[in-house]
C-alpha cells in the first residue's frame, strides 16, 4: 500500500511540474483610442486586419483570450465594430477594461 501511495504521489508531482512548465495563456490587448484607431498588443491595425489576425491566433489557440479597452472619448461604434469581430470569430474569453489609463493605454 505504501508503494502505491508513493507512485501516486510521484505521478501527481510530475503532473504539477508539467503544469508549471507550460506558459500561462497570453491575453491579447485590444485598445480603441479616442480617434477610433484600433491597436492589437500595441500595434496599430485596421478592424479588417484585426479579424484576420485574431482568426489565425484562434486557429493556433482555440482558448484565445482578449481584453478590450476603449478610450473614454471614443465613438462607441468603433467599440461595437471590435466586439462584432470577436463575436463573428466566436472568441468568448473577453474582458472589458473600464479604468482610464493604466497598462492597456496604447
What is the compact description of this entry?
This protein has three helices and five strands, in the order H-E-E-E-H-E-H-E. It has helices at 2-21, 47-60, 76-88; strands at 27-32, 38-40, 43-45, 65-70, 93-97.
What does the model show?
The chain has 3 helices and 5 strands, in the order αβββαβαβ. 44% of the residues lie in helices and 22% in strands. α3 links the parallel β4 (65-70) and β5 (93-97). It has a 5-stranded mixed β-sheet. The mean pLDDT is 83. It has a domain at 24-97: Nucleotidyltransferase, domain 5, CATH 3.30.420.270. α2 (47-60) runs parallel beside α3. It is of the alpha/beta class and 106 residues long.
CATH class of the domain at 24-97: Alpha Beta
Radius of gyration, whole Å = 20 Å
Strand content: 15-25%
Characterize the main sheet.
Answer: 5 strands, mixed
What's the CATH topology label of the domain at 24-97?
Nucleotidyltransferase, domain 5
Structural class: alpha/beta
Helix content: 40-55%
End-to-end Cα distance, whole Å, is: 59 Å
Task: State the total count of DSSP E strands.
Answer: 5
Return the CATH architecture of the domain at 24-97: 2-Layer Sandwich
- Average pLDDT score: 83
Order of helices and strands: HEEEHEHE
Q: Strands of the biggest beta sheet: in what spatial order?
A: 3-2-1-4-5
Low-pLDDT regions: none
Inertia-based shape: elongated
- The total count of helices amounts to 3
